[in-house]
């Protein structure tokens, strides 16, 4: 069975990536692997628990088979996402993008860029709906 890996953060770009990954998984009858890319230490908080419950409810409503994973302690989101994609032999990875200024792109490291350049499978990058 094929698999699609999605990097999820509880932000508009993460929700857009999750929606697109769910659509693709349903179309392709693929297993969906959701990787919570919030970062180590975010799990267990009421906000994080509510976000996870929302993700599970949305995917259950779609009737999808899925697996939900948390980032490893101290792991970089890009490395974790790529490692999971390699582990499950993913058809592709879905990530969400946010708008950044030219200076922001220069100064800050970009997980999206690392995933796009380092992943051994195709990467589908989606933008968040500005009205959401």
UniProtKB/TrEMBL annotation:
CDD domains (UniProt xref): USP-like
Domain UspA: 3-127
InterPro entries in the record: Rossmann-like_a/b/a_fold, Universal_stress_UspA, UspA
A family per Pfam: Usp
Family statement drawn from the similarity comment of this UniProt entry: Belongs to the universal stress protein A family.
Protein name (Swiss-Prot/TrEMBL): Nucleotide-binding universal stress UspA family protein
Species whose genome carries this gene: Actinopolymorpha rutila
């Amino acid at each position: 069975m094929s698999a699609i890996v999605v990097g999820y953060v509880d932000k508009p770009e993460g929700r857009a990536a999750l929606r697109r990954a769910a659509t693709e998984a349903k179309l392709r009858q693929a297993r969906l692997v959701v990787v919570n890319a919030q970062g180590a230490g975010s799990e267990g908080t009421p906000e994080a628990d509510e976000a996870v419950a929302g993700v599970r409810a949305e995917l259950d409503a779609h009737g999808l088979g899925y697996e939900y994973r948390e980032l490893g302690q101290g792991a970089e989101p890009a490395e974790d996402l790529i490692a999971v994609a390699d582990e499950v032999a993913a058809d592709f990875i879905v990530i969400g993008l946010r708008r950044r200024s030219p200076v922001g792109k220069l100064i800050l490291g970009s997980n999206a860029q690392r995933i796009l350049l380092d992943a051994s499978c195709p990467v589908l990058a989606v933008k968040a709906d500005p009205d959401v």
